[in-house]
Amino acid sequence: MKTPLGKWWSSNCTVHGSHWPRVHGTMIHHIRPLSWSGPDIASNKVEVCPTGHTNIHILLDLLSDRRGVPLTDETKGFSRGEIALAQRGYDEWAATGFVPRK
Predict the structure, then answer these.
(1) Is the pLDDT of residue 22 over 60?
(2) SS3 letters for the chain?
């Protein structure tokens, strides 16, 4: 189902699996973000809850700021799944030869 804002929603969060309280929906996250020249194809998409989606993007920004240096203390409060997807997105972006913004 598509919302008025154009986001795709359904009910399975790949990052957290189950939620309590129950999550109202999930959204499609591009592993390598479209803004980082990520392709809009099925293999670059995962279904995540809104909280997971926000957290992955926070971690992607941290990785970009650190030029890919693995995150340590900064990851407290983030799930392993969020960290793994952010690292994968950054690694795929770096493999294309793009230079981090800082």
Answers:
(1) yes
(2) CECCCCCEEECCECCCECCCCCCCCEEEEECCCHHHCCCCCHHHEEEECHHHHHHHHHHHHHHHHCCCCCCCHHHCCCCHHHHHHHHHHHHHHHHCCCCCCC
CB atoms within 10 A of CB 9: 15
Task: Give the per-residue pLDDT at 68.
Answer: 73
Asked whether residue 71 is assigned to any structural domain, the reply reads yes
Measured in whole angstroms, the distance separating CA 75 from the mean position of its chain's CA atoms is: 14
- Domain containing residue 59: 9-95
Can you give the pTM of this predicted structure? 0.79
Interstrand relation of 26-30 and 9-10 (parallel, antiparallel or unpaired): antiparallel
User: Is residue 1 in some structural domain?
Assistant: no
